[in-house]
Design goal:
The protein has helices at 2-53, 61-139, 145-176, 189-206, 224-240, 286-290, 300-310; strands spanning 181-182, 185-188, 210-214, 219-222, 247-255, 258-265, 314-320, 324-332, 338-339. By secondary structure, the protein is an alpha/beta fold. It folds into three domains: 2-109; 117-176; 184-339, Histidine kinase-like ATPase, C-terminal domain (Heat Shock Protein 90, 2-Layer Sandwich). Strands 3-5-6-8-7 form a five-stranded mixed sheet, with helices on one face. A two-stranded parallel sheet has the order 1-9. Strands 2-4 form a two-stranded antiparallel ribbon. Helix 3 (145-176) runs parallel beside helix 7 (300-310) and helix 4 packs parallel to helix 5 (224-240). The two termini are 38 Å apart.
Length: 340
């Protein structure tokens, strides 16, 4: 589809360029031809004037006309060659420009297609589970009340899981728009961290994981709720992938008008081959899937990265497999996005 569109766009670019070039060529030829006509006319007048004072045989009047005609022919040929050169050069340039023009559109369409494909795949699993359990139970004529209650509880878990996935997909779709109209205000980093800490504290308490908050208080411009969500996601992941009786450390520094906030855990770590993909949508490392039996759809870090991107920031990770992981969020003090 895009290959055909590229050729069509190239053709339109070429048509516009050649129309302009031909119109300029016609204008140039008309002007030069007019000048040649005036030169020819002045030569004729000069010849007539010379004949009145010099009693000699007149020069061949056809000679100058032939020279002018040859000049016209040469100019015509030059203009044709120039237009042909413009056609060739602009053809390549137009094809390149058409590709550059369509590239962001193609990337957006590809991203949407991947989003739909990934979403459909993730939605299919809980839906299939729901359908299978319900169908099996309906065929069971001896289904007891106790079994029915267990079935409803299991179905409820799947429904909650689907709702969570749906909410995350909607959030991710919202951030994928990368809208510059970001709600921006002056925020305390200490307040952001403390709010996220309180949300995760019950989950950490269940695993007896201590969260050590050594962050300093800085002020940045950004969307408060979105940034709280980022650190809630990072802390949630840190707790999920940490063993019991471990601790998580939060630190912050300021460097060249940028605030760096670190979330470091003593968890299972991330394999080197997984590091380039952890911010990809629906990506989860094999170890976390098979051994740790953690819940989720691999959307949290993708959402966190989108939020940091809208704040013109950077999020990166360092990890030692089997020992620790450290996520570092770097946000400029002043957000360059449009404030609404």
């Amino acid at each position: 589809m895009f290959k055909s569109a590229r050729f069509k766009l190239t053709a339109w670019y070429l048509l516009i360029i050649m129309l302009i070039s031909i119109l300029f060529s016609i204008a140039i030829y008309s002007e030069i031809n007019s000048e040649l006509g005036r030169v020819e006319h002045f030569q004729e007048l000069r010849k007539q004037r010379d004949l009145q004072f010099v009693p000699a045989p007149p020069p061949n009047p056809e000679l100058d006309r032939n020279v002018v005609a040859e000049a016209r022919d040469r100019i015509t040929l030059i203009l044709i060659l120039v237009n042909f050169g413009i056609l060739v050069i602009s053809g390549g340039a137009a094809y390149f420009l058409a590709g550059r023009t369509l590239k962001p559109i193609k990337e957006m369409v590809d991203e949407q297609n991947r989003f739909i494909t990934d979403s459909s795949h993730e939605l299919r699993t809980p839906l299939t589970s729901l359908r299978s359990e319900i169908e099996v139970s309906l065929r069971d004529k001896n289904l007891s009340v106790k079994d029915a209650i267990k079935l409803l509880e299991s179905n409820l878990e799947d429904v909650i899981s689907l709702q969570s996935l749906s909410d995350n997909l909607m959030e991710l779709a919202q951030y994928q728009k990368q809208n510059d109209n970001l709600l921006s205000e002056k925020i305390s980093t200490k307040e952001i961290i403390n709010t996220a800490y309180k949300k995760i504290l019950p989950l950490a308490a269940k695993k007896n994981i201590a969260i050590k908050n050594d962050t300093k208080d800085y002020f940045i411009e950004g969307d408060k709720q979105n940034l709280i969500q980022v650190f809630t996601i990072l802390l949630d992941n840190a707790v999920k992938y940490s063993n019991k009786d471990k601790h998580i450390t939060l630190t912050s520094t300021k460097n060249d008008h940028k605030i760096l906030i670190s979330v470091k855990d003593q968890g299972i770590g991330i394999k080197e081959e997984d590091l380039p993909h952890i911010f990809d949508r629906f990506y989860r490392a094999d170890k976390s899937r098979s051994k740790e039996k953690t819940t989720g759809y691999g959307l949290g870090l993708s959402i966190a990265k989108r939020i940091i991107d809208t704040h013109n920031g950077i999020i990166r990770v360092k990890s030692k497999p089997g020992k620790e992981s450290e996520f570092i969020v770097e946000i400029p003090e002043k957000n360059q996005s449009k404030i609404i």
